[in-house]
Design a protein that fits this description.
Layout (H helix, E strand, L loop, with lengths): L1 E6 L7 H15 L3 E6 H4 L20 H10 L4 E7 L7 H10 L22 E7 L4 H6 L2 H17 L2 E8 L8 H19 L4
Parallel strand pairs: 1-2, 1-3, 3-4, 4-5
Helix pairs in contact: 1-7
Length: 199
Amino acid sequence: MKQALIVAHPRIRSFTVAMAEAYAEAARGEGVEVVLRDLYRLGFDPMLHMEELPDHEGFQPRADVLDERSAIGDADVFAFFYPLWFNAPPAILKGYVERVFGMGFGYSRFGLEGNQPLLSDRKLVSFTSSGAPQDWVENSGAWDAMRRHFDDHLAAVTGLGLIGHHNIGEVVPGMREDVVASHARTVAGTAARIAHGGR
């Protein structure tokens, strides 16, 4: 199994990156090949450029997009790690999805039967964090709205099978190290289950 971990947080020493590292270590321990794509450290450009718009003949993804598609193209599982900002993914991750998971990778060119999903045999799992408690995120309606708008739509367009979205609430500056470590163990446990075909 090969998994691509897509990480989006500007701080290298962040809760998000710590959870991604815990996941990666556990997955590797189960024999999984892990490709880590840390978008901020890569300096990934999230802007979709005019020539990349698939609304004209000869449109062409830029070299950085082709590099990303090459790096993650044969992954069996895509694992996203990001904080919820305004109850949505950071702009750099949204741009990554728009540019990398677009036409020619996530879905086909428009044909007689419309666009066809190209990732139907792959899986998607997400690990997010929020400053607000999880019950507030859910009771406010933000959780359902975000998942419908991002997770469900991405899966519908690309054919990705959703195998979970795990949000950790009340992630704030100055969290105790033992609390962070406890969350990391939970994430590692999920990584081990996914490595064996679970969720």
